[in-house]
Structure formats: structure tokens, C-alpha cells
Amino acid sequence: MSENIRQNYTALEKGDIFDKEFMPNIDSMYNFAYRLTFDEDDAKDLVQETYLKAFRFINSFEKGTNAKAWLFRILKNSFINDFRKKSKEPSKVDYQEVETFYNSEDTDVSVTTDLRVETIQDMIGDEISNALNSLAVDFRTVIILCDLEGFTYEEMAKILDIPIGTVRSRLHRARNLLKEKLQSYAQSMGYK
Amino acid sequence: MAIMFTNWLKNTLRHKENTTEMCQESKKCLEILELLLDGEAAPEQAEFFHAHIENCMPCYKHYNLEKKIREILQTKIERRAVPNDLVESIKIKIKETA
């Protein structure tokens, strides 16, 4: 994702990069967009816009490097700049106390949840999906990037423009929130 | 026979550990546990943790729960199919701008 070195691709090379490095990521891109917007048309628009931007700025992409992370970064920025403004999504989560998680001395590390392996094992995809979708967008995003798309901490830090320490504390918080959701869902459904 | 005895001993020890609630190194363990499951732990951290959960029931249980959560996220959440017309419409738009 080196953005400082400008390339100078020919039209043929641009087409080649676009088809062989950008387009194979469309499935992940669409799924990420859908999980951000919850709407098929919005997701399509967001993906299309991302690909058009990627093509326009293709000279700042170094051939053979991490195209997926590069595209995800554009998509996430497009979402924040264009889509989030329009939506009713609450603007920002307050991270003040969570960002310093691993540095603070009085971190609560107890395994609070009563959630059991057997319980989540029995849940169906929709229930897990709903729990994930109910998280605030910034928490949802880190779980999608890490667990669904398999990005490393370093890649996530670049996609989200935040330090690795923040990636880790946000992930930690996101997973705890997800566990709470799964737990209350399990209770309401009468799982044991 | 020796293996059976080792397993029996492990289970007995685990059972015993189970009655003592907290892990003495919970903060360190939690940090390594997350690194490990996210594929970011150093080899010596992984080694420490795997040895540790042989004797620490809270961490053993926590590890299994966290592992399962990642597993269900990866396997149970259905991926949506890309709409048929999306690729085509992107290509048309690109041609228009190129």
C-alpha cells in the first residue's frame, strides 16, 4: 500500500491490474459493503464507487502489492465520507477509555460471560449475523476485517488509519460486546 | 497405559484447578490468547500459552470459547452473492471514463 511512489502505467497495464488484481476481490468488497450499509443497492453503489476511484488512482497502487487491503481502505473511506453522512448511524463511538486497554493497570480481565461453547455452537447463522449487525459500525468493522476477511493487525491499521494498539483494543472491546449480544440472545431464545 | 495415566492425571488436575477461580496471570494470558487466536502471537508466546492451559482451567475454558466464537463467525455467517449486473456495470463505467 505504498501511496507515495507514483507509478506510470500504460493503458494496457492499467487494464491488466484492474482485471487481475482488483476484480478478483469483488466478492469480499461486496460483502463488506453490504455489512456496512445493510442495503443491496447502497452496497452496489459503494462497491462501484470504490472501483471507479481505484481505477482513477491506479498510479498510486504498486503492482503486485496488497490490492485487497488497498481496495478495502478506499471502500471504508468512501463509506465514511459519502454514505455515513446520509445514514442515521450514530456518528462516533467514544473510545477514550478503551484505547488504553493494554496499558492500564486496572484492566478488567475477568472472564465475565456465562456464554458456553455449546450454546454458540447451536446458534444458526442468522442469529450470529444479527448479533454482529447490532454492533456500532466501528466495532462491527474490526470484526469483519479480522474474522471474516482474515486481515492482519498491520493491514487493519492501514485500512482504518489507526495504530495497531488501537486495532487490538477495539477488537477486544468489539468481541466483548458481541459476546454480550450473543449471551442475551441466547437467554431470550431459551438456550441453556 | 502411560498415556491413559497422563490423561487421568491431567483431568484430575484440571478438575482441581476448576475449583480455584482465577488465573494468577490473567492479564498476560488474555493478551496472549487474543494474539494467538488472531494469528499474531510469537512462537514463544504460543508455547507459553499452550503449556499454561494444560494446568489452568479458567484460561483453558476461555481459550475454547474465544476460539469457537471466531470459528462460528467464519463458518456460520453466510456470504452474499455479488449481484450479477455489478461487475458488468463497473466495467462499462470504467470504459466511459478511460
Give the topology.
The complex is a heterodimer of chains A (192) and B (98).
Chain A: H1 11-22, H2 26-37, H3 40-56, H4 67-86, H5 117-122, H6 125-133, H7 137-148, H8 153-160, H9 164-188
Chain B: H1 2-19, H2 26-37, H3 43-52, H4 57-76, H5 84-97
Helix pairs in contact in B: 2-4
Describe what is shown at a glance:
The complex is a heterodimer of chains A (192) and B (98). Chain A has 192 residues and is an all-alpha fold. Chain A contains nine helices and no strands.
Describe the structure.
The complex is a heterodimer of chains A (192) and B (98). Chain A is mainly α and 192 residues long. Helices cover 63% and strands 0% of the residues of chain A. In chain A, helix 6 crosses helix 9. The model of chain B has no long low-confidence stretch (mean pLDDT 86). With 98 residues, chain B is an all-alpha fold. At the A-B interface, helix 1, helix 2, helix 3, helix 5 and helix 6 of A face helix 2, helix 4 and helix 5 of B.
List key phrases describing it.
heterodimer, A: about 190 residues, mainly alpha, Rna Polymerase Sigma Factor, Chain: A, Arc Repressor Mutant, subunit A, 2 domains, about 0% strand, elongated, B: about 100 residues
**CATH class categorisation of the largest domain in chain A:** Mainly Alpha
How many helix segments of chain B?
Answer: 5
Distance between the termini of chain B: 73 Å
* Number of contiguous helices of chain A: 9
Instruction: Give the oligomeric state of the chains in this entry, treating copies of one chain as homo and distinct chains as hetero.
Output: heterodimer
